[in-house]
Design goal:
The protein is α+β, with helices and mostly antiparallel strands. It is built from 7 helices and 5 strands; from the N terminus they run αααααααβββββ. Helix 3 crosses helix 4. The N and C termini lie far apart (46 Å).
Length: 181
């Protein structure tokens, strides 16, 4: 009886398995959340070829799901492009952690540099490290960054386990809220 259930489960899993091409199509259609969530299930289930890991990792970065990038970056070693992607993932993880410490523990980011990217964490980290920001409040900490028409407000949540909130504004209209822990 157990063998029948196992065979049925394996058959069901194979029928519903997404192909890499389906993931690529979802990625091209900017369905980053779906690629990240579905891809992580496949990734933790053992699907870890570099192209797939890159696709899923970039999708996760696009939806601010940064934590899984820590395990994924270790899988990207065989080509120059894979290693560059691995460094991108590692820099996002480090930027997230250092920004969190800056906001919660008051560590200095002065003169620290990480590779630059178009991710919001890179933008915020660069400005915090260069001192190119304004304190709106010191307790609780609230910071504003204005650069090239981009306005960002950084604050700390009221949750028991604090989160760093990064709000992007277009004028006075909230464009997007990011949160990191």
């Amino acid at each position: 009886m157990r063998n029948i259930v196992l065979i049925f489960m394996l058959f069901f899993i194979n029928i519903n398995a997404k192909t890499t091409e389906e993931f690529i199509q979802d990625f091209k259609n900017k369905k980053y959340d779906a690629v990240c969530q579905d891809g992580l299930q496949y990734y933790y289930g053992g699907r870890q070829d570099e192209m797939f890991v890159t696709l899923v990792g970039i999708s996760c970065a696009n939806v601010d799901n940064i934590n899984p990038l820590g395990t994924m970056q270790a899988k990207l070693v065989s080509t120059k492009e894979a290693r560059e992607t691995s460094s991108y993932f590692a820099s996002l993880l480090l930027a997230k952690r250092l920004i969190y410490q800056f906001m919660i523990d008051d560590i200095s980011l002065q003169n620290l540099q990480l590779p630059k990217s178009n991710h919001i964490l890179s933008f915020v980290f660069e400005h915090l490290g260069s001192g190119n920001f304004v304190y709106l409040n010191k307790k609780p900490k609230m910071i504003k960054i204005d650069d090239e028409g981009k306005s960002v407000l950084i604050s700390i949540s009221d949750d028991e386990v604090k989160r760093v909130l990064i709000d992007e504004y277009n004028g006075v209209t909230l464009k997007k809220r990011h949160w990191f822990q």
